[in-house]
Please model this.
Amino acid sequence: MLIKSDSQGFVHPIASDITPLSAYQSRRNMIRLMASGVAGAALASWAGREALAQAWAPPGKHAALAAIKSTTPGALTMEKVTDYKDVSSYNNFYEFGVDKADPAQYAQALPTSPWHVEIEGLVKKPGRYALEDLLKLSAQEERIYRLRCVEGWSMVIPWVGYSLSALIRKVEPLGSAKYVEFVTLADPKTMPGVRSRVLDWPYVEGLRLDEAMHPLTLLAFGMYGEVLPKQSGAPLRLVVPWKYGFKSGKSIVKIRFTENQPQTAWNKAAANEYGFYSNVNPAVDHPRWSQDTERRIGEDGLFTKKRKTLIFNGYEAQVGQLYAGMDLKKFF
Model:
């Protein structure tokens, strides 16, 4: 794999055979060719749907982060990708404020290089990993995931990263490790929200080890073919697409392997509202609103009909077996 370094000091893998933009152009060319063939009508209809659903181009805001197409089942949704401007300006990142526009306004002061992640707890190979080493640990993949917020809105985002399991295998958890805890940066100098008491800082999230090892659980370094913008969790974050968005910790500085279930930020703040699992489930309402439907950001006009919420956010075929036999209303 080739790599390059940008002006901010990031080291990026370069996939010589494909980039997000070239992939988009290739799909368009494929549609034209199939449409002109004998069986063009049927094939062009299918291919046109794919291109319409996934067409996007890097916004040109940050350093490029090339990736190969993922072959992981469920990793490339066919739904229309949300506009970059919406994804990068409508954020929950309470370290920078509670309003949706606060992260884009205040996160730009956050220094993201150099950056290190501490691996602690029940592993054979604990240590301090530089961002550059994590970037090179596994091939970067493009994953297009649905994102569902517990607040009842959703997006479709093309991420760049690799399965968290690659890092987990490298550090070799002990047999006693049952959970993985993720600790995010809490710097009052650059994160004004940390000076508030809205949560118990630092922000902590957690997964069962088998959830963390699932191929869809993503360690993300970029989105839309570029490195992550700071308001979206730069320089690296978690993405767990079948869970509500707050489970996907941003700007991670520590990953700890434990025997006991971690105390997570929102669960500590309001355990009756935010369970440890927080799997997307239309049958389990938030105490203050229904989870049966959702509004898609960028497509939520006054008369736009809300979408039906899908169990496990549409990833039931891939992850449902993780919760076989569990009472999902009890373990919400």
User: Anything to note?
Assistant: Confidence is low (pLDDT under 50) at residues 1-49.
